[in-house]
Amino acid sequence: MTEFGDIRLWLGWRKRSLVEAADGWGRFKLSLAQNFIPATWQVMTGFGLKVYVPSILSGSIEDGLPDEVALLGYSSRAQQEAGMQTETGRRYGAMHREIFEFGNTARKSRSGWAQAPTPLQPSLRASSPGAAGFFDPCASIYVLLLASPGRLPSSEAILAVMSAQPGSLALWCQPGFAVIWLAVSGHLQADGIRATLRAALPDATLAALHHADAAPQIGPNQPLPMVEQHSWHFRVQAGG
Length: 240
Fold this sequence. Notes:
Alpha-Beta Plaits; alpha+beta; 6 helices; 27% helix; 5-stranded antiparallel beta sheet; 28% strand; 6-stranded mixed beta sheet
């Protein structure tokens, strides 16, 4: 439990048919921009979603990295889980299988609640006193993707590397890659982060470093732009 709610993390790989088709990556991005990401925000805010940071990555299947990842901040785990049992929640859940892979072990899309650091599971480190948290209205959120040909260090080791960052940090470390979400006040010193990671994790590559841009207005006639290597930051405004 964070100061304001619960954090859920998502790792997504597009379904096999969208890997094998020549235009599969474009169709996947279009579906995310026009349907899936807007639906997540519009539907799940009714079930306590307050912060949503989806990231569209590069679509290269050779490296085994996920195609889309997300951080979702809910008022409470109980509210989200109750919402997913409703008819609306079940319809939303079924949308995942239209574009995401769930059958292949290596590319099996999955999500989980971030808790105390645990190997291979979503982990959460609360912010230091006075530092930014994911639910803070003025927080900036950054998304980092680390890739390694071997096994990355443990979640605890990566958290130790990032110990100088005082804001909230969420992490999902998997064999070959790790996704890190950071809440900061102001701007992240990207060059410093790159140098720190390079020194501490010489076998890892920083495959992506995104500042999550404030999400534009969305609606039936206002889909998101179809982009890649990009993160959006949706948040419920004060009083919303």
